[in-house]
Amino acid sequence: MKIGKIWPYILLIIGSVVMIFPFVWMLSTSFKAPMDIFNLSIFPESPTLANYIQIIEESMFIKWFLNSIIIALITTISVLFFDTLVGYIIAKFSFVGRTVLFILILSTLMVPTEMLIIPWYMMSSDFGWADTYWGVLFPGLMTGFGVFLMRQFMEKIPEDLLNAARIDGMNEYAIFFKIAVPQVWPAISALGIFTFLSNWNAFLWPLIVIESASLRTLPVGLSFFSSGEAESKWHLIMTGATISVIPLILVFILLQRHIIKGITLTGMK
Questions:
Q1: Burial 224-261, CB ≥16 within 10 A → b, else e
Q2: Average of per-residue pLDDT across 187-206
Q3: Using one digit for the tens of pLDDT, what is the confidence trace for 19-30?
Q4: DSSP 8-state assignment for residue 128
Q5: First-to-final CA distance of the chain
């Protein structure tokens, strides 16, 4: 085989090792005793499940895990419904101010999340949403990116198809759910995957709005195992992180076809 055909594979192998090594190290550390975590060996000398037992029995890890699942699922369902519906309305209905409305929605993509933290927190405090599930949920129940993405896909649905459904007597709700939604299912799948992953890993806003330990999400809960470089409980952090990636791995394994197709389609759009 010529050198020109080999080097791309070599680069891919090197890149794969660089990407996989942190995960392997995290998994290995989760099975090490606290005094062994700074050993440079990848494989633990005396593997133990004590870290997993400790993090489950001595912390609220299960509760944090369930909180993250609840918040990620509710937010994903809300985003899929409202973003798809709004994208369909903007793409297929003519009304005064449609273009202005779409531009305003797009403009929200240009505002960094960090600039929205203060108004979100003031709103949460004024309405009594701080330290509640709703306080964590409300900023992400609808997204400008999702509306933009669904609007772009909805525009590709032929008007003749929708008009034929209206002539057959279907109401607008039935047309949306039975005609429009099936036509853009790959985009909906991709949006759902991206939304779930982003909310599962969300850290800054849940850290600010949540005060009760029982309402913490998984990333926030794990951060409290760290209290400085010297006092951080790295064995528990690595153990919790190892468990926390399980849903993400399952999502990828079950929906990898949709993930790849969604990335391809969103890139084209």
A1: ebeeeeeeebbbbbbbbbbbbeebeeebeeebeebbee
A2: 89
A3: 888 888 888 888
A4: T
A5: 38
Helix (H, G, I), strand (E, B), or coil: what is residue 104? Answer: helix
Retrieve residue 79's tokens: 């985003």
| Burial degree of 61 (CB within 10 A; 0-12, 13-18, 19+) | buried
Q: In this predicted model, what pLDDT tens digit does every residue of 56-104 receive, in sequence order?
A: 888 898 999 999 999 999 999 999 999 999 999 999 988 888 889 999 9
Q: Which amino acid is at 64?
A: W
Where are the chain's structural domains? Answer: 1-48, 60-268
Task: Evaluate whether 48 touches 32 at the Cβ level (below 8 Å).
Answer: yes
pLDDT over 70 percentage in the chain: 92
Residues 6+ apart with CB under 8 A from 152: 87, 91, 269
User: Cβ(267)–Cβ(194) under 8 Å?
Assistant: no
**149 and 268 Cβ atoms separated by less than 8 Å:** no
State the DSSP code for 177: I
Residue 131 vs residues 61, 76, 183, 224: alpha-carbon distances, Å:
18, 21, 40, 17
Predicted model pTM? 0.83
The architecture CATH gives domain 60-268: Orthogonal Bundle (1.10)
Q: What is the pLDDT of residue 259?
A: 62
CA 52, CA 258: separation in Å to the nearest integer?
A: 33
Q: Which residue has the tokens 């153990």?
A: 239
Q: What is the mean pLDDT of the chain?
A: 86
